[in-house]
Amino acid sequence: MMEEDAQVSASTLLEETFYITSKKNTFYKVKLTEKGLSLQKESNGSTKTETITLSDIIGCRCMRSKRKTPSSCTCRPGISKSQAQLVESNETSHNWDEMDTSAYLYIYAYILKKARVKGARRRERTTITLRFRSFDKYDDNLREASRWRLAIKCLIIKVPIPKNFMSPSHGNLEALLNACPDEQRKLLVLLNPKSGPGRGREIFQRRIHPIIAEAEKPCDVHITKHSNYARDFIRTRDIHQWSGILSIGGDGIFFEVLNGIFERPDWAEVLNDLPLGIIPCGSGNGLAKSIAYAKQEPYDSNPILVSALSVVKGKCTPIDLVRVETRNHIFYSSLSVGWGFIADIDIESERLRAIGGQRFTIWSLARLIGLRIYRGTISYLPCDKIASIECKTNGNLYDKNSNEEIIAHSKSYGDNLDRYCGVKEAKSYHDVLDSITNDLSDNYLFDEGEVIGENISLETEIQTRTRLDSFYSTTSKKSTYFSTGSNSTYHSLDENASVAQNDNDCNGDSNRIMYGPSSTIPALTTQVSSNWTQIKGEFVAVHAAYQSHIGEDAFIAPQAKLADGVIWLLIIKAGITRTNMLQFLLGLNTGTHLNCNGVDMIPVKAFRIEPEEGIVGNMTVDGEKVDYGPLQAEIFPSLASVMSP
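Above: the chain sequence. Below: its structure as tokens.
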């Protein structure tokens, strides 16, 4: 135990003692380590410790309490939690409560929990409020809170903590406040308001932007106005001013962003510098599900939350891209290429877009009844060996060789770290902390170590004066991005478009110039090489997938990884019975569809589809309709990076 304690002490970066208003005999020793935030509860001789891991923390913010107004008196009868006035960070009129010199540090974490249902998991939001009130001057308290904020943010994005700013005697408060890295460049957000059921803007405002604001990631939001708007936006703008590109909608808007990048001469620089993110608001959402599945995140419990956390955590994962060539166009794809049964469902169910993902189920039954046969030739370059490729992860860049001790507490107004002894707590009707937040009672910690409760509120104590409590609240769940105090911009539909409207399909202008890596396979107009395999005949479906999911409920390639350099070619030949096709559809959700008779899955590096002339059908790339005719594709491993948990 002593060795363990020594290890914990050696890795402790910041340490402070905090209290709860209603618990006179309870205090918490809060430690910030390289692993996360340690809360050690001391109550009547008993000790409990819980650690909120760094991987669960998305950000933190420093704030100051606002002055009460007669219209928001907290002592009037009948006040509800939803009426509580928010603490904001950018009050232009500076209506601060001058009697409260406290600095509040809000730490936002989304903790992975086990649900009561066996095997089910979910992420739940927890806010840790640390109220620094040890000193009589707000600037001194703010300096304490800002040191914690800077250290936490550096640990989150895995960069070295600037030790000069961590010194308690550091006098330049403004420099300390602006020392957090990676806060200058904004995130570019492209939002499709018509994806899926058409609730993209509402979902962004209510559920996505609050998370981005908690992580203090400023963003520029642009609403797409028509088909190929995002593609032309990416092609024509100076996108190097942003820190990353986030697509909000279905797989289609990500497809537009991707191909807009490859219409730029500097495509390689863009892919190297800017990670790509996606938050699902569409009908299929296969890419978002594949990213979460690869990282073992509980996507199904809350898809938007899990994907939003991927955006703000600042981690990147390589992903394979596929170059697709038709007679008239070149595309770059991140998800799949389809011909036949699945492509028909994807395209023809568009008329049912308003009902969301259920459109695929309904149209699957229609196509099962009217099963179609397609004639043509399938050629593919098989994989000689399927290697297990591990996804790259960001290493911890913090200097572990540093021999520095715990960063010392400021000495400006007191030199005792533990100031809980002999301090009498004043009672004040203004202090509504206990009525609007969950204090850390004995029920706070489960034996399994799980954190419960949405808000954890702790505060330091003072020696030089009695407590001066003031109104503040952090529990309002109804705040929107309009009141977060962020530097984000929101470009509405009124913005003057700088690009012309294109056709309604993904082909767009036939004069588009596509860049990207050079092809390594024979041209589409020539014969394939002798090391290719050819299958000529009748088919029900051919679908090439390079991610595990092509939809939230379509687990098409169970063995696929984000960056394994493999295309998984699904082939269903004619002659399969409707019973087996029904089994295929029912098993697609769990991956057992590959056990059905007449269903083959082949790992390949490249493939070509040549439909027989005179037959009309559907071909899709990432769920978008393309010209029907000869098509070939090849994979380029780890060509791009995606935001991931």
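The first helix runs from residue 2 to 11.
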